[in-house]
Structure prediction request, 253 residues.
Amino acid sequence: MPKHLRLWVAIALLPTYCFSQSKAVESLQAFGVEYGVEISIQREDFDTEAAGYRVIGKAINEEGLESYAKLWLSEFRRYPIDVFKKAKVKKVILCTGLQVNEQIRAAVPAFDLDAMYYDTDLGAKNPSYQRSVVHHEFFHMLDYRSGQMRKDPDWAKLNPSGFKYGDGGSKMRTSGVGNLTKEIPGFITRYGTSAIEEDKAELFAHLMIDPEFMAERVAADPFLLAKSELLRKRLEALGLSELLESKATILNR
Ligand SMILES: [Zn+2]
Prediction:
């Protein structure tokens, strides 16, 4: 095709291309450009072999994507635009039917792939669960990059004496373990007791989405106060302290 004709074909097709994109897809792509991260909307099933684990998932469905995109974007827009660079995340994959080693997951921080996977359908009936997942899983990425995700003596010593973590998040999958509780000193969910990395991610996620509950808990529990202070210091070092201060008042003094 001659060069000038190619140009005309491209121009003629442009409106079709633009208008065939859904609002959600457009907003996600615009976010990706602004935040310097590739947002990949999974259009077919996949099976990805990573370092010692396997991520599988299915194509998104348009309806689920529409509502999930709104929620996901409203949570991620609370972060500064260089946050993906800080977390070394190059790609976010939105899909359904997400699993790691055949275990169902709402999201996966794939450290070795510099990628995050989010399931757009799982927990769709419980938006506050989906919101907490957005931050919980992203925190794992930040924590991993800091080199202290699983080995973190400064954090461990803030626990009540004699406390021991469980066998890891993947071993604690019963329903209700993620519910907020006032019954466990130093913890806000039972899931947080499963492993040190889950403890940190749970605390961060709920400081982000449940500031009132957290304010009450932190005021009443010196273990949680100390953990929240350490978390705030770490976020400050990453240039992310405003995250908590903008919405939660507890750490803002
Ligand atoms: Zn986790």
User: Anything to note?
Assistant: Residues 247-253 have pLDDT under 50 and may be disordered. Residues 20-123 form one domain. The chain has ten helices and seven strands. The longest strand covers residues 91-100.
